[in-house]
Design brief:
This protein is mainly alpha-helical and about 160 residues long. The protein is built from six helices and no strands.
């Protein structure tokens, strides 16, 4: 969070209201070589931490909840962004956006299915219960699937 905050205030302090959507591209024309490289490093760190944390969590879900070995679960997490690059998407922001949308959608569906399985097969008595009707449950999964499909059509 600290690196992200420093990066944000640095970019806004340098270019102000003229900050483009891809702030890193604008750094080269505004500041010195060393500062430019530092800004690029901070930008890459801030943009990739979200993917890394979501990817790690998803990999742990595959390993612990679905008893997948480490390598196949890692492949499933890495496959979507890698396929986007191979398919010709060269815009980093678009790749991260699509990858995050797909991963978040898949993660939402997995979380709901895991919750349903734990509720029906678990032997532990929970501290509280969330009552969701079956139609609402499947409607929420449907919404996640629509999000996944919409990200695929962004390609």
């Amino acid at each position: 969070a600290l690196v992200y905050t420093i990066f944000t205030f640095t970019i806004l302090g340098i270019s102000g209201h003229n900050t483009p959507m891809q702030a890193i591209d604008n750094l080269g024309s505004l500041i010195l070589d060393f500062s430019w490289k530092l800004g690029i490093i901070l930008g890459i760190c801030t943009m990739s931490t979200s993917f890394l944390s979501l990817g790690y969590i998803l990999m742990q879900v595959y390993k612990k909840d679905y008893n997948m070995p480490k390598f196949p679960s890692w492949i499933l997490v890495i496959l979507i962004p890698l396929l986007l690059i191979v398919l010709g998407l060269r815009n980093f922001i678009t790749v991260i956006s699509i990858g995050g949308g797909l991963l978040s959608g898949v993660q939402g569906v997995i979380l709901l299915l895991t919750w349903q399985k734990a509720r029906s097969q678990g032997d532990r008595i929970p501290e509280f219960k969330i009552k969701i009707s079956q139609p609402l449950f499947y409607f929420i999964i449907f919404i996640f699937c629509l999000g996944i499909i919409s990200q695929i059509f962004v390609l």
